Amino acid sequence: MANIGIDLGTTHSLVAVVLGGKARCLLDDDERVLLPSAVRYSPEGVPRAVGWPALAAAGERAQGAVLASDGFFPFDDTVRLAASCGIAAVIQPGGSMRDGDSIKACDALGLAMVTTGRRHFLH
pLDDT digit string (tens) for 43-58? Predict the structure, then answer.
């Protein structure tokens, strides 16, 4: 029997399986370990793609969009990935010990950031 673990992160997610006492990360079709935490939905609300294909499908429609998160950004990778997809602004609760890194990344990349001071997602 295999044990499967899923880490759903703010920016990236991964799936691992434990076989014979050893953990192995599952790769996508392009042999990448980490998948962007992104989902593309159809007009009917049905999930159509996850990860890199979801980001690719957004294409130019992501230009100038706003990214909202109910959890804080523990690292600046969320900001960097958002900027690479054309996101213009982010709104998030704030409160991470590394908020300064995310704020600096936004400033460097020309993104606006709003922190609400209210966290909706708790572990």
Answer: 888 778 888 888 888 8
* Single pTM value for the model: 0.71
Instruction: Tell me the residue type at 43.
Output: P
Query: What is the C-alpha separation between 24 and 113, in angstroms, rounded?
Result: 36
- Cα separation, 17 vs 4, whole angstroms: 4
What does the block give as tokens for 53?
């294909």
Question: Distance (Å, rounded) from C-alpha 100 to C-alpha 79?
Answer: 12
- CA 123, 104, 87, 80 torsion-angle sign: negative
Distance between CA atoms of 36 and 5, rounded to whole angstroms?
A: 17
Q: Which among 49, 41, 35 has a CA at the least distance from the CA of 6?
A: 35
Q: Return the residue matching tokens 């920016």.
A: 11
Cβ-Cβ contacts under 8 Å for 1 (sequence gap 6 or more) = none
**50-88 CB burial, b ≥16 within 10 A, e <16:** bbbbbbeebeeebeeeebebebbbbbbbbbbbbbebebe
